[in-house]
Amino acid sequence: MKKGIILIAAIAVAGIFSSCKKDYTCTCSTTSGSYTVSASTTLHDTKSNAKTACEKGTSTYSGVTVTCEIK
Fold first, then answer.
1. Looking at the chain, which terminus has fewer C-beta neighbours within 10 angstroms, N or C?
2. Furthest-apart CA atoms within the chain: distance in Å
3. Is 68 exposed, middle or buried (0-12, 13-18, 19+ CB in 10 A)?
4. pLDDT tens-digit profile of 18-50?
């Protein structure tokens, strides 16, 4: 019985720590011809949500490519 309670508690603690909000750096690089410019911002969220929000900045328009990723 004790082992079952300890196992359930361990799973609950692991679930809490895996969904914690942390700071993630989203870096976007803009490339046009031979020029590249980078900018970064900090996102405070879960890793999954931060990755999704960061990747929304990735696009291409008229030969200019913007690539965003969590680093």
1. N
2. 66
3. buried
4. 568 899 999 999 988 888 899 999 999 999 999
Contacts of 20 (CB under 8 A, 6+ apart): 46
Closest CA to 41 of 24, 59, 65, 20: 24
Element (H, E) at 5: helix 2-18
Local confidence band at 56 (pLDDT 50, 70, 90 cut-offs): very high
DSSP output for 16-56: HHHT--EEEEEEEEEEETTEEEEEEEEEEE-HHHHHHHHHT
